[in-house]
Every structure is written in structure tokens, then in C-alpha cells.
Amino acid sequence: MSRSGGIQRPIAVMMRPVIQTIRPDASVAEAAKQMASAKVGALLVRDQGHDLGIVSESDLVRKVLAESLAPAQTLVRAVMSTPLVTIDSAASAHDASDRMAEAGIRHLAVVEGGEVVGILSVRDLLHYFKNWGSQS
């Protein structure tokens, strides 16, 4: 499929605008409970209004479970991914897909005017490409 063909929807339309956040000093167990409750795969790590990174299901599996760390005693700051990888809200789905592939990640923080306004997941992109990506 040509990148010049097809509908180019801005990421702002595809992203999840409600951002789930967690403090860096919260436990990984708290993060897992919050992800499950909110039905999300990642939380933005925020402290005193500053976005420090992101903690994802992959971080929990690879950095906590695989290393046999205790989730109740392990802090989010020890396993979060930093620096926070971002993309502008006006970027295309293809730009987001490329950025995720280059960084080897499944979640991007979407920014507008320097502020994080949402989270875009690989699932959001799959939904986009399945439903709209091949239209001309």
C-alpha cells in the first residue's frame, strides 16, 4: 500500500485520550492492578506534573516476573521505560508505526503543544489499519 494513498487520519483521532498515570514510587503490584482495572496496557509515569516515562505490561513481564522480583516491593521507577517516546498528535498512523518499530515499543505518548494528551497503542494502530488503512 502506498503511503500517499489511503486516508491519513491524525493520531489524535486514534489515540486513547484518557491517560492513566501512576507515581514512580508506587509498587509494581499497584501498577498491575491499575492496568487491569482500567483495561489498559500501559501507564504514564508522572511525578509532580512531570512525565518521567511509561510502564507497560511488557515491562512487568520482562523486568519483574522474568527476574523473579517481588511486585509488592518493586517500585515503578525501577522498571519503567525512559525516556518517554512521543509523537505529535497531527502525525500519521504510518509515522506512529515507524516510530514504534524503531524504538521497539508498543505504546507512544501523544503530544500537542509539548503536553501529553493521550496514549497510542499498537492495538489502536492495528484497528486503524484493519478498518481504514487500505481505503483509497
Q: Would you kindly provide a written description of the structure presented here, covering whatever features stand out?
A:
The relative contact order is 0.23. By secondary structure, the chain is of the alpha/beta class. The termini are close together. The protein is built from 6 helices and 6 strands, in the order αβαββααβαββα. Mean pLDDT is 89; it is low at 1-6.
Order of helices and strands: HEHEEHHEHEEH
CATH top level assignment: Alpha Beta
CATH architecture annotation name: Roll
| Number of distinct beta strands | 6
Overall 3D form = globular
| Number of H- or I-type helical stretches | 6
Taking the sheet with the most strands, its summary is:
3 strands, mixed
**Uncertain regions spanning at least 5 consecutive residues:** 1-6
Q: Any idea what the radius of gyration is?
A: 16 Å
Distance between the termini: 10 Å
The total number of structural domains is 1
CATH superfamily assignment? CBS-domain
* Helix proportion range: 25-40%
Q: Major sheet: order of its strands?
A: 1-2-3
Question: What is the beta-strand fraction?
Answer: 15-25%
CATH topology name, in short, is CBS-domain
